[in-house]
Design goal:
The protein has 16 helices and 59 strands. By secondary structure, the chain is mainly beta. The strands form 15 sheets. A five-stranded antiparallel sheet has the order 6-7-8-9-59, with no helix packed on it. Strands 33-34-35-39-37 form a five-stranded mixed sheet. Helix 11 packs across helix 16 and helix 15 packs antiparallel against helix 16. The longest helix is centred in the last third of the chain and has 49 residues. The termini are far apart.
Length: 1100
């Protein structure tokens, strides 16, 4: 079977939507019921506002790196024009360049709260980091030249910009205007040179003399330019191309890295040949021969220490014969050379030093390495160079994310419980020092409720994240693949695989936060039920069930075999469990004609399994091959801890399993759920009598008919129907698609099953891709011992409701309009000793039914809220009249719909494929919000988008990042306070002392008045056509335009104060000018008086 492909989902969904629309149009809609007691709805449009909150995860496709050594802030730029800033753990910020061009370089204005970004579209941008949401103050667009390298000297306002043509331009960062001072390439190189030196790859000023600028050209030429004399003092030429250059802090030597894997160290005053040439990874060759060339050294840094040898740190330079070797960072310190292997290719690295001054001993303490898919920080001060434990949530993509769930307002004890079991999973061997990137300050915590994000991954792992108060921290990781036998190589893989790769990938997660029960559905048609325990156990035999879920109606050898068996009347419930279940699943691998049959896709381990504290396997359920037909992928899933049931469905049908008794209760094709009430005239596929093993026929739902074989289905208390999981398997032909109706939504509840019911009872509501809702009644035995011995009786009720489009979500309201959550059993430690009082255990196991059925007035009525791809309906129960209806979209379809709590009320939130986010009041379905947010650019967004309570939502914005958004006005208003501050006032360290002799004889660092050289008065104006200045939105006017809400009122007040301060400043300046004028007048008057004092009257 071909690999499961999610790219065909949209086609499948569109086809499903169009067919269901036509079918829905033909069915008659029930007239709206008379609303005897209208529910008072409190939510209004003003409660809603949509905005992005925070972005978590590793920056996708990183391209540039910068660090502010005083503020202790790290910046990462990406190929899509994104900018991510990191301070202390919990202080993060995301910005985006509007052009979307790749960031090629970042430069902090150290300790100034500003950052310059250079982009591949030849623009420079100045970011203001002194506000919680950084904004661009100025931009400069180069028209005639391409930017290749930038350099910003410490405590300078002049930025050197090197170009592809080999020229260097100088930008005043305060005004973001070009100086007239230009260093032309033909003046920097030897006049006798006939060839162009190539683009500028390096610019830096001599640490001891700011008036001397070192310029590196790609071809191998380096020039030391005298800024005052406007000429090159020295020129250094080498045969090999240059990739990077670094100074020794004394300014007497510099080091170059080359394309042949060599390093050349040059004395500044000796340009004829290198002082030393090193090939860090070259083989030692005798007889004076040149060593074999190595791969290019892409970057080198030269850092000095007071106490010992300098550090030379480089990336690349490996020998060409090291095939398959991972990318390396090499640290050379004295005579020792350490080669540190990385998991991904190195994008950039920076050495973190104690001082920001380039003319002082650098004292390096760490190296931050930006990899293609990771950020690594190496401790240079400890033996063996251990890495720091990364506190940022950058491991979301450790294995690709395949599904996502978001839970706000969880039980308060959940996060500590998950953290305590997750703490044992932490790796050892990290550096003992604290994380050194610790700038910024946390925001105020205005949200006090716990939030949890669960991510499912391609390798079968599941991660639980603490997402409270707009932060993210990993709590616990569960590896679901541990229960299966793994093939050592691709050739050993079983022939029953239905996917080419990632056979354990998670498709659907169903989690009950109160009971801590977890259920997952995987891509190989497997379902695993987990219980949470704080104690370690060893499971001798992993409990498992195999389920034969078919799409075809069996023809039984009887006269009426051609008729579909009718649904039972409400009085006669079928008991498909009257025959004892198989204790061991069938292991036959082929049927009589040699086709694969009765075999699951994966093999469960038959050895004992040690289970650590955390989530422990309760039951593994697998769909099996049937007569050469592979099992279809699971499209919906639900679990209920109060009933002890799990239910799941696919395009073949539905199966329900009692995970307490480990038995299959229900196994039906979707068509059979309708019985004789099927509104579609579907012909079953041709029978396969010869292929069908004995006893594998689908059960007739009649009294006295029993299931001959274990078949299973799993319940959904909170099923997330991903469009990812709704795509049809490749084995389904286009003809089959017309008649195949998949199970798309499942919901356990305690409600009215039939019109004649007088009291609510446990049941399962089933939604299909053709817009049908069917109800299955559940007859549960009493709790305690009886629950372990007596069977659960399951019977379709005959209730059928219709909507346009596939059913996505169902929920229930009481007569006050409050949500009626499914019943649950509170969590208790499952692995306790057995000697406790049995009565206590029975009491503890009593399920919490949240349904307010005990109150007589409430039990008179309930409302079912059903959301499909096209519309939403509110149906009054038990009368089953449609009370309210809303057509959500005509031209598109809903990808995700959730019934969520907000501001002590509830609403329906929808995300459409056309990019609109909408909310509707409940139960009246009044439109409250309709905002165009983002188009469905790829299936990753459709697969991971989810809403949760308190106005929160999220989706996977890139393969490595989660974007959180809010649709709550209150959260939008409080967001400014919740965000952390990147910039904090820090005193710049003192400059290094010159020392007595250096001061006496004129040694030490030479300063330069750059204003005198580069200012307009000295250098003139730059050509207007060279670059265009673009004012950014980050100034006062930009803040004015963005101001809204309470926080922005403060911003307005601050702006008013600033403006008032400016006016007062201007007034003070005018007063000072008047005083100066008065002084001048007084002086002139005094001079005049002295001049005239001794003159006689006739001398005037």
């Amino acid at each position: 079977m071909r690999k499961f492909n999610i790219r065909k989902v949209l086609d499948g969904l569109t086809a499903g939507s169009s067919s269901s629309s036509s079918a829905a149009a033909s069915s008659q809609q029930p007239p709206p019921a008379t609303r005897e007691n209208d529910i008072q709805e409190t939510l209004q449009s003003e409660h809603f506002q949509l905005c992005k909150t925070v972005r978590h995860g590793f920056p996708y496709q990183p391209s540039a790196l910068a660090f502010d050594p005083v503020q202790k802030i790290l910046a990462i730029g990406t190929q899509t024009g994104a900018l991510r800033l990191f301070g202390r753990p919990g202080v993060e910020c995301y910005c985006q360049h509007d052009s979307g061009a790749a960031v090629i370089q970042l430069q902090f204005l150290i300790n100034e709260g500003a950052l310059v970004s250079a982009l591949a579209d030849d623009t420079l941008h100045l970011w203001n980091l002194r506000q919680k949401r950084p904004a661009i103050l100025h931009s400069l667009k180069f028209n005639r030249e391409r930017i290749t390298f930038c350099h910003m000297p410490f405590q300078s306002k002049w930025l050197y910009v090197g170009t592809e043509r080999g020229n260097i331009h100088i930008v005043n960062v305060e005004s973001f205007s070009l100086s007239g001072y230009v260093i032309m390439w033909n003046k920097a190189i030897e006049l006798s040179s006939k060839s162009h030196p190539g683009p500028v790859v390096h610019i830096s000023d001599n640490p001891m003399d700011e008036g001397k600028l070192l310029i590196g050209f790609e071809s191998g030429t380096v020039a030391l330019w005298d800024l005052k004399c406007k000429k090159a003092d020295y020129r250094y030429t080498h045969d090999e191309a240059i990739h990077s250059v670094a100074w020794h802090h004394e300014g007497k030597q510099f080091i170059c890295s080359h394309s042949d894997g060599t390093l050349t160290i040059w004395n500044v005053r000796n340009p004829t040949k290198p002082f030393q040439t090193i090939t860090p990874h070259g083989k030692q060759v005798k007889d004076g021969k040149k060593p074999e060339p190595c791969k290019p050294i892409l970057k080198v840094e030269y850092k000095t220490t007071r106490a010992g040898e300098p550090f030379i740190i480089l990336s690349g330079g490996l020998s060409y014969d090291t095939v398959g070797r991972r990318p390396c960072l090499t640290v050379m310190h004295g005579k020792s050379t350490a080669v540190l292997e990385m998991d991904y290719s190195i994008v950039d690295f920076l050495t973190l030093c104690e001082t920001p001054y380039p003319n002082d001993f650098q004292e390096p303490y760490a190296v931050v390495v930006l990899l293609e898919k990771d950020l690594v920080l190496i401790d240079l001060a400890q033996n063996g160079y251990p890495i720091f434990e990364n506190p940022y949530p950058l491991s979301i993509h450790e294995s690709p994310v395949t599904c996502c769930e978001y839970f706000a307002d969880c039980p308060v004890d959940l996060i500590p419980a998950l953290y305590s079991v997750g703490a044992r999973q932490k790796r050892q061997g990290y550096s003992k020092k604290e994380w050194p990137i610790n700038g910024g300050n946390w925001g105020l915590v205005t949200q006090s409720y716990p939030e949890i994000i669960i991510t499912g991954h391609a390798d079968g792992s599941i991660k639980f994240w603490d997402a409270s108060a707009i932060t993210l921290q990993v709590l616990y990781k569960l590896k679901t693949a541990k229960v299966f036998e793994k093939s050592k190589n691709k050739d050993d893989r079983p022939s029953t695989d239905i996917v080419d790769e990632d056979p354990y990938a998670i498709q659907i997660i169903s989690w009950c936060a109160e009971s801590r029960m977890l259920c997952i559905a995987g891509v190989s048609a497997h379902v695993i039920v987990y219980r949470f325990s704080k104690q370690e156990i060893t499971t001798d035999v992993i409990p498992m069930l195999e389920v034969r879920l078919l799409y075809e109606i069996n023809y039984i050898e009887s006269p009426d075999s051609e008729q579909v068996p009718p649904l039972p009347t409400p009085g006669t419930g079928s008991n498909p469990q009257s025959i004892a279940p198989q204790s061991h699943p069938s292991t036959s691998s082929s049927s009589s004609d040699g086709l694969r049959d009765n075999v699951p896709c994966l093999k469960v381990k038959n050895s004992s399994l040690k289970q650590s504290p955390g989530y422990q396997v309760e039951l593994v359920i697998q769909l099996v091959w049937v007569s050469g037909e592979p099992p279809q992928q699971i499209t919906s899933l639900a679990i209920n801890s109060a009933y002890g049931l799990v239910v799941f469905g696919n395009c073949n049908g539905i199966a329900m399993v009692d995970y307490i008794q480990k038995t299959t209760l229900l196994n039906l094709g979707t068509v059979e759920l309708y019985g004789s009430n099927d509104p579609y005239r579907r012909e079953p596929r041709s029978p396969r009598k010869s292929r069908q093993p004995s006893g594998a026929g689908l059960c007739d739902i009649n009294e006295g008919t029993a299931v001959q074989e274990d078949r299973c289905k799993s319940p959904t208390s909170d099923v997330r129907d991903n469009s990812f999981s709704r795509s049809r398997s490749s084995s389904v032909t286009s003809i089959d698609k017309e008649s195949r109706e998949a199970i798309s939504a499942l919901h356990f509840c305690e409600t009215f099953t039939r019109k004649a019911d007088t009291a609510p009872s446990p049941c399962l509501w089933v939604g299909t891709t053709l817009g049908t809702v069917l109800v299955i009644a559940l007859n549960l035995p009493p709790g305690g011992e009886q629950r372990l011995l007596q069977p659960v009786i399951v019977s379709p009720s005959g209730t059928i409701l219709r909507l346009k489009g596939a059913i996505l979500r169902m929920a229930f309201l009481d007569t006050t309009g409050s949500l009626v959550p499914p019943a649950y059993e509170p969590w208790r430690e499952p692995n306790v000793s057995e000697d406790k009082d049995e009565k206590d255990k029975v009491k503890k196991r009593r399920p919490v039914s949240v349904s307010p059925s005990s109150s007589q007035e409430i039990s008179e009525n309930q409302y079912a809220v059903i959301c499909s791809e096209k519309q939403a309906k509110v149906i009054s129960l038990p009368s089953q009249n449609c009370t309210y209806k809303q057509n959500i979209t005509e031209t598109s379809f809903v990808l995700r719909g959730d019934i969520v709590a907000l501001s002590n009320s509830i609403c329906l939130a929808c995300f459409c494929a056309n990019g609109h986010i909408m909310t509707f009041s409940l139960p009246s379905l009044r439109p409250l919000l309709d905002v165009y947010y983002l188009p469905l650019t790829n299936m990753r967004i459709a697969r991971t988008f989810c809403f949760t309570n308190n106005g929160q939502a999220l989706y996977l914005v890139s393969p490595t990042e989660i974007q959180r958004i809010t649709y709550s006005q209150e959260t939008c208003e409080n967001l400014q306070e919740m965000l952390g501050e990147l910039f904090t006032p820090v005193e710049t360290p003192e400059a290094p002392n010159k020392g007595f002799f250096k001061g006496l004889f004129g040694g030490g660092a030479q300063s330069l008045d750059r204003e005198e050289l580069f200012g307009e008065s000295a250098a003139g104006k730059a050509s207007r056509s060279l670059a265009q200045h673009i004012p950014g939105p980050g100034g006062i006017e930009g803040v004015k335009g963005a101001a809204s809400g309470i926080v922005c009122e403060l911003a307005r007040a601050r702006i008013a104060l600033d403006e008032r301060g400016q006016k007062l400043g201007e007034l003070e300046e005018r007063t000072a000018a008047m005083m100066a004028s008065a002084d001048s007048f007084s002086k002139h008057a005094h001079d005049m008086m002295l001049k005239c004092k001794d003159k006689k009257w006739y001398q005037f």
